[in-house]
Design brief:
By secondary structure, the chain is of the alpha+beta class. It has a domain at 7-205 and 218-237: Orthogonal Bundle (Hypothetical protein af1432), CATH 1.10.3210.10. It has 20 helices and 11 strands. The protein has helices at 21-28, 30-33, 55-75, 82-93, 116-132, 149-155, 162-168, 174-187, 196-201, 217-235, 238-259, 268-274, 280-285, 287-294, 298-308, 314-324, 340-354, 358-361, 394-397, 403-407, and strands at residues 7-10, 14-17, 111-112, 203-206, 209-213, 278-279, 330-334, 365-371, 383-385, 391-393, 411-417. It has a 4-stranded mixed β-sheet. Strand 4 (203-206) and strand 5 (209-213) form a beta hairpin. The termini are far apart.
């Protein structure tokens, strides 16, 4: 039998280990390998040229941090079995598996009422079925208990040990620790770098909830500030958002043409979503939708856009050409929402400039609101453990961060427009 305890050289954390055969088999599944063909930061490479890393890299980085978290908690006397450790590592490895090309773009264009979280869970269940057909030596696998049952339970917060779910999804989880470190590294935005190693070593458990020892409070403060800065400098950078809105309009126009019987060049996977109305029921009931989705990645979308430059439709051709040439939508801040008269004026302007109808011209602009909050008092709080055993929310414990500043959700309203002055 081939050795499945591999070592991966990661540019952010160094050498990462695959702990057992089950994790190796999960990594080898086509659904997981697909993540290597999807960029972690979507269109951010148009602003930060180094941001070409993949969701696969993020997933294995988060898995490594989960290994470190389990080791740190065990040293504090927290009981975590080998089966639970493996389950937690697999759950975080698969947490982003349902993401489509360019992050959330497909959720707004090619599918109806389906989120990447929905698809992630469906893909986990499919992988569980596939791996249950293979007998392994390190994990007991029967018809009643499939190999990923515990991992899925941890992911869904249905496993008795809630703190394991918190490591995957909370306001101080290994997912956020990895993407802040990784995205900071590849974009060059040093403000996003966090002390993940120290944060993990400061973790403990009280009452089945994660806590951070008080001597790690400054690292938590740095983590929250880094997250806030990364959102506005990277994830919600005006040009990145402009590119995303531009792409949404391209796919929306292509979807409209396909609905009306137009023939557009695209891969079979993209063709399925352009020419069909795909809902959650299609994913949950029909295996074809999930299989097609699993073949969809960044290359499908980019190759189609290049071909659509000469598709014959004025709007789709113009939007595709400007996107490929990086003549992205131009953004301007709005003090208040556009009025109906202002929207009509925009439609009229582009209709006259491009020689199209006002309905077609509506694909040339977008009104969008960007918003982000650093901390939510309604979600799982970040709790600080003091030497006397008391526990306090970071919003109360911090001397430099106050509740109002942490929970405020600043917003920016933009008007993004196709450039007529290229």
């Amino acid at each position: 039998m081939a050795n499945k305890r591999k070592i991966i050289n990661d540019p952010v954390f160094g050498f990462l280990t695959i702990p057992n055969e089950l994790v190796y088999d999960v990594l080898q599944h086509p659904y997981v390998q697909r993540l290597s063909r999807i960029r972690q930061l979507g269109l951010s490479y148009l602003v930060y040229p180094g941001a070409l890393h993949s969701r696969f890299g993020h997933s294995i980085g988060a898995m490594h941090l989960m290994q470190e978290a389990v080791t740190a908690l065990r040293m504090k006397g927290v009981e975590i079995t080998e089966e639970e450790s493996t389950a937690a590592q697999i759950a975080i490895l698969l947490h982003d598996i349902g993401h489509g090309p360019f992050s959330h773009v497909l959720e707004h264009t090619l599918v109806d009422g389906v989120t990447h979280e929905d698809i992630s869970l469906l893909m986990m269940e499919r992988i569980n079925e596939d791996l249950s057909k293979v007998r392994r030596t390190d994990v007991q696998c029967t018809k009643e208990a499939k190999p990923l049952d515990m991992a899925i339970a941890v992911f869904k917060n249905e496993y008795p040990k809630h703190f394991l779910h918190q490591l995957i999804s909370s306001q101080l989880d290994v997912d956020r620790m990895d993407y802040l470190c990784r995205d900071s590294f590849f974009t060059g935005v040093q403000e996003g770098r966090v002390a993940s190693e120290r944060l993990l070593k400061m973790l403990d458990v009280r009452g089945d909830r994660l806590v951070v020892q008080v001597k790690g409070i400054y690292s938590v403060e740095k983590f929250l500030v880094a997250r806030r800065l990364m959102y506005w400098q990277v994830y919600l950078h005006k040009t990145s958002v402009a590119a995303e809105q531009h792409l949404i309009k391209i796919l929306s126009r292509a979807k409209e043409l396909a609905k009306n019987g137009g023939e557009l060049f695209c891969s079979p996977a993209l063709h399925y979503f352009l020419y069909n109305h795909v809902t959650f029921d299609d994913f949950a009931v029909r295996s074809e939708a999930l299989d097609r989705y699993a073949l969809l990645d960044d290359t499908d979308v980019l190759s189609a856009i290049k071909a659509w430059i000469s598709c014959g439709d004025k709007v789709l051709g113009a939007l595709s050409r400007s996107f490929i040439d990086r003549q992205l939508f131009r953004g301007e801040l709005l003090e208040q929402p556009l009025t109906e008269n202002e929207k009509h004026a925009l439609d009229k302007q582009y209709a006259e400039a491009l020689g199209v109808s006002e309905a077609e011209a509506s694909y040339c602009w977008s009104e969008h609101v960007s918003t982000s909050n650093t901390y939510s008092e309604k979600a799982d709080t970040i709790d600080i453990l003091y030497s006397d055993g008391t526990v306090r929310d970071i919003a109360e414990a911090s001397e430099i961060l106050d509740l109002e500043a942490l929970t405020r959700k600043p917003t920016k309203r933009y008007l993004f427009k196709y450039r007529l002055d290229k």
